[in-house]
Request: fold
Amino acid sequence: MRTLPHKNIELKGENNMKYIVILGDGMADYPVDYFDGKTILEVADKPTIDYMCEHGELGMVKTVQDGMKPGSDVANLSVMGYDTKKCYSGRSPLEAASIGVEMKDDDVTFRTNLVTLSDEENYEDKTMLDYSSGEITTAEAAELMKAVAAELNTDVIKFYPGISYRHLCVWSGGSTNVDLTPPHDISDRKIGEYLPKGDGAEKFLEMMKKSVEILKEHPVNKARIAAGKNPATSIWPWGEGTKPQLENFYKKYGLKGSVISAVDLIKGIAKCAGMDSIDVEGATGNCETNWDGKARAALEAITGDSDFVYIHMEAPDEMGHQGLPEKKKYAVETIDKKVVKFLKDELEKRGIDYKMLIMPDHPTPIKLKTHVSDPVPYVIYDSTKDSGSGLKYTEENGKKTGIFIEKGYTLMERFLDR
Reply:
């Protein structure tokens, strides 16, 4: 046992214990009609996760505190051990940190999606067909955002390209007194009642309408239409926030941490918390992501100088938003086969003691196509002991154990034996 003098945190166990978090974004669900009333976790073939569950601790954890929206920002911060009531300042500032945009104290940032709207002439009558513009590629999106910035940037409002459909707007001296709706919350709905409200609402709506004209004739969109893909027909701002302040992860827990994700939000959390953000070529955040590359990068980090690795996989969440049960099932099965099994086998082959935390950040139910705040099941597996829940990894089995972590940000302390 050793004590960190700056925090008086006791570190139990051997100093060479390694810690890995497997975060399957949105993989918890409600019963799915397509699967005869069973959840994705109940029907997915995930033998390694189930083994770890049977020989580890299974319980339920509330990752979204009361009064907060069930976004991946709030939920992942909670999983990483941060009390979001104290540290959360918005989603987009974390994304700004990821793409290297330096924020001033009076800046307000906004996530800006490239979305596909229906083609009614009146903007207010359009329908949200696709919050991701057909999971547009980063290269295509960069060209479109370049065109948007050329037309819409001013001395106080500027646009920056991000990854795939996820981009950034910075409003210098802006306001957070706004009401902006996440586009993935309104799939297949008319957008009229979800348009911006509050400070700057008229300006935002004006830019959204102008973006339609900018994007309509762009060669990237013409090529996508010709290829049978959804074009990006409008920008959609949401997720406002101010400059973030996160406690350094090493100072908090005494562990050198690394994060692997295809998503700017998670990369931004890593950078704000002083952790390494590891880029993996071909990591996309969807089912065609480089699963093997993520697993290998995690192994390299955890067998190198990292004590803690957080592997975030977005695909189950994306498939939930799109209402695709078979693809969401595939995403969970692939996490099990290509990431969890790979790491388990490789670490045990090397004789490395490790603990693994497996969980979603929040549910993204197929039938709702959006996030909910319900508690989620977690597994803690320790390679040095057999806790023995004896149960497979499902939502219902998590409830059966009677273990419930109400303050989600305390789960990390439990996982790390603090």
Observations:
- The chain is about 35% helix and 20% strand.
- The mean pLDDT is 94.
